[in-house]
Specification:
EC 6.3.1.2; globular; ATP binding; 26% helix; Ubiquitin-like (UB roll); 5-stranded mixed sheet; Gln_synt_N; Creatine Kinase, Chain A, domain 2; alpha+beta; Glutamine synthetase
Amino acid sequence: MAAVSPSSHLSKAVRQQYMSLPQGETCQVTYVWIDGTGEGLRSKTRTLYSEPKSIEDIPEWNFDGSSTYQAEGSNSDMYLIPVCMFKDPFTLDPNKLVFCEVLKYNRLPAETNHRLSCSKVMEAVKEHCIWFGMEQEYTLLGVDGHPFGWPTNGYPAPQVSASSGLLIYNCSVGAQYAYGRDIMECHYKACLYAGVKIWGTNAEAMPSQWEFQVGPCEGIEMGDHLWVARYLLHRVCEDFGVVATLDPKPMVGNWCGAGCHTNVSTKEMREKGGLQHIEQAIQKLSKKHAKHIHVYDPHGGQDNIRCHATSRFDSFSAGVANHGASICIPRQVYQEKRGYFEDHHPAANCDPYTVTRAIVATCLLDTDEGEDSK
């Protein structure tokens, strides 16, 4: 059995004594931001003396970027710029979570702040009312790095049944198949309470692997809501004493990797005859496959190379109801001749701002603007 953290053994009853104390008119606001790795999240909390009603009521703040891989110690102050606000499911309303952009000392975006450039691209195509939905896969581990629920000195049953040839853990039910359902359900509720646009969840192909979906979200909202959903996942796992990893290939061998399939739909795709717009977008994506792979994980495509997930990283393919292709048109969409398409290539640890920015730049702007500009 995987090891859990010492903090998870602390008395929750004692904690609740303090959490239930009244706080008057004050409000705890937790600022959340992406650190210098482009994958990790950081947070810190301050007191406001009245409940903020909108994001405009949240003041800018700062932090020491030398502690988060974002600055040198000799010039380390970084700015936190609040961009969206959520209810805090851990300390409860009126307390808030605030997701922030990070600016450097000269107020230029930090190297891992891709939100600013993504926002500019989304503004340029706002008449298309582009919707996204992202399917975030993750794996539960003990603090020792061993998959949660796996035998200490062995492996669970293979993910493909020897008798039927079918996946046995995907969307599974039962203690012998589903590891960590309590964590998944608590995360789901935390997202709903906070106001994150979570769409659903299910067990995935590898034991201790799960998925949640966020969306539909329009434009820049996609990145905001997925990053906050990730923060909530890490905090829920902290309470249970386990780790949620977004590593695209957490286990070597014949075990599935983890991705973040991205669903895309413009206003034109959703209207009658929208299938032609879907096919046009796929054609554009086929011509920039390598460039998209490069930005679909934070390591220039290297995570896609080692990920044993859906589709090949080194070639482009598309098909109807083909979940082994780079791009899939769902069967219902093909039958109704309108709707959306699925991009299967983003890795689980992708930055949703760079992914959605690249898709918009290719499909709607016919440029490479989404790749590396700030």
